[in-house]
Amino acid sequence: MPAPEGPAPVVDAIRGTALGSAPVPLSVLDLVTVGSGSTARQSLRTSVEIAKLGERRGYHRHWVAEHHSMPGVASSSPAVILAHLAAHTERIRLGSGGVMLPNHAPLVIAEQFGTLEALAPGRVDLGLGRAPGTDGATAAALRRTDRLNEGADDFPQQLAELTRFLDDDFPDGHPYARIHAVPGPVQGPAARPPLWLLGSSGFSARLAATLGLPFAFAHHFSAQNTIPALDLYRESFRPSAVLDAPYAVIGVAALAAEDENEARRQVLTGALSMLRLRTGRPGLVPTPEEAEAYSFSPQERDFVDGWLTNIVHGTPDAVRAGLDDLQKRTGADELMLTANAHGGDARLRSYGLIADAYGLPDALQALSSK
């Protein structure tokens, strides 16, 4: 006879566990980049492979980020991508890093992520940002208004409305009291994804602290603001039913290769892609050959050199040392690694090499050794 079932194990929906010699849990931020000569279809297939590798090697979570009107990025629909990843994985946490809430009606997001929670119970995160994830014209098209600042300023109100929809607890007399997000509690006892606030400045850090929510900071493109924002979050934190102490993740651009020169070739493709985006020339991520042949002006070279200083890249041992140093300097509770390069093979290889450098377990090897 099977043993009687005991109580379900208590699983922390927010905090991860550091594996191997990693100082903190390691996770993946996937921008679903599309390189020159490739397609969105191929990039999405690579995302599945990265998620499967992450699950096998002990990465804690895999997040995708909402971007729009960027040829080099295919992550315009996080909920759709996450549903696809859920169908190809079993254990790794999946989430948005993030959904840009002012682009959407809160009820829509509550129903999308309620659906994801029903598809992948207990492993969905809902990370939220207040930026548009695109340029102003595209944001106006998304929001059907050109009053973009109004949407960002209303973020706390939108967040409160989303939370009410997720919990199905609008008070009597509220205009939405008879409206229910489905799937959701109206259909019976239901868990909901933990909420995270994302940011690249102090606004979301303070709001996350006030609400007692976990916080994810975009160090990969706002490195100068990382420590001030994390300090503000920790100093302002108020314990809540969600968290009794602050929990901060930072997004880190990191890429490992077998040798330093190859790592440099790969990250230069992402730097050139960002330069083009920042100067109004967005496109597919260039090949390493195209990036090496590009003639940078002095101003462009300054931008690229500055950008590369914030990317932890090199041999696996060098990347491990860089990540260890960054974690010590920031006190981050988790490192979420994004590998921005032209090709999917380079990104996959990087995540594998970093896992090896930290001695993360390989689930397939463990099974084969039994």
Automatic annotation (TrEMBL):
GO function terms (MF aspect): monooxygenase activity; oxidoreductase activity, acting on paired donors, with incorporation or reduction of molecular oxygen
Keyword Oxidoreductase: yes
Annotated ranges, domain Luciferase-like: 27-329
InterPro entries according to UniProt: Bact_Lucif_Oxidored (IPR050766), CmoO-like (IPR019949), Luciferase-like_dom (IPR011251), Luciferase-like_sf (IPR036661)
PANTHER family in the record: LUCIFERASE-LIKE MONOOXYGENASE
Family of the protein in this entry: To bacterial alkanal monooxygenase alpha and beta chains.
UniProt protein name: Alkanal monooxygenase
Species in which this protein is naturally found: Streptomyces niveus (Streptomyces spheroides)
